[in-house]
Amino acid sequence: MSIWTDVSAEGVQRQIAVNIVMVHIFSGFTLWDSIVSLPYEWHLFQGKRGCKWGAYTFYMNTRYLFLCSTITTLVFVDMYAEKFVRSLGTFFQISGHISNGFAYAILALRLLIIWRRDFVALIMILCQLALWASTFAAFPRVIDGFQERNSNIRLISTLLAVSSIMLVCAFSGLVHAYRHHIARLSCRGVFIEDGFLPTISRYSEMLWREGFQYFVVVWCGVLAEAVVRYMHVDQTGLLQFTFEFVRLQYRPALLVQPEAAQAQ
Question: What are the TM regions of this chain, as residue ranges (predicted)?
Fold first, then answer.
């Protein structure tokens, strides 16, 4: 962490260099993912792939706001050493966080499909209201393209709470549904191998097949950013900028995969 705690002129330059490299790496992944998804999106638009219009709206808003944010961030970072463009910084912050909100809506839809219970729907509605309220409250606190510290802490705390709730709901819902599935198979006389390792293997395969890894990756990313912010190890703000950019990149990229939208 010494590179991020060095506030000398040379240390700041190294931080900027690392930041630029990270931005380009994750932006490259994002742009590649957008290109390979174009055939699917065209078939989706033509009605050749099944997807309800509500989920389609979340998908497209997440995808293209997220893409605009990525391109704007690339331009902002590449111009940063020569010229600071405040409007670009403000735009990529706002568009990135709005696409992030739609990405969480996709997670909420997945949870509703898993549980199909009214109380889970109420929990997801409350989570979405809290997330969007924190997101819109943070916009006036975007100063010179960067979020004010206390505003960022409030937003990160909300994201961490919402991500944790969704992670627990996803795990418990999938395990509960799979147990009922195993019980029905046993009643029909289907042989189910007992034992610790076979059981763990079956549950792990089920969780992976149902997309639980998306919830885990989202939660880990938010937790890492929260630790950096809470410990206040970032003196210049560049480490926070890097973490925030990576978070805003990987979450929509993971959650708007074609199979995710088709599942809705």
Answer: 20-42, 63-81, 87-107, 119-143, 155-178, 212-231
